[in-house]
Task: structure prediction
Amino acid sequence: MKLKQFILIFVFLWCVAFTGFAQGTITAKNFASGGGPGGSTTFVNAPITNWNGVLALGSGFFAQIYAGSNAGALNPVGIPIAFSAVIGGTFNGGSLAIPGFPIGSTPTMVVRAWDNQGGSITNYFDVTGEIARGESAPFTAVALGDALTPGTIPVLQGMNGFMMVPEPSVITLASLGGLGLLLRLRRKQ
Result:
């Protein structure tokens, strides 16, 4: 076999293998428009607010996408994404391959966001106490696109905005309970 034929066959087989293992891709933005199946356009406008209704802004907040075959089997995708310092309540993580889901598939997704306490909390499940966190309702992604064809990559269409709320501390709950008991006892007198 001649060298040119060998190289041609090798390149062909490599391309076949590469496309066979291609992962579906989504654009990790919660405020944007993007491509979609068959040349359609996808849209999302799902701002994330803090507990007081103010749009989360800047690198003090992270968002991360979780994907799976259903809402009970979600896994983190990529790394946490910092919020925009310009447009409140939004993040832009660029194109993100979803492992285990081929082009055209429609995984279940959830977006989780949290106050990262100056970058010291890099995982949603490490958030404890009175630190704000929240998550979107599960949604089914639009058919995932092909990273080699940017016009087919959808945004997080189907995602709804949500509010990050801190968990109340035990002391706060005990204080409220005690206050309720005092008011009830006072009312009886």
Q: What stands out?
A: The two ends are 102 Å apart (CA to CA). Residues 16-20 have pLDDT under 50 and may be disordered. The helical segments are 3-20, 170-188. The chain has one domain: 22-180.
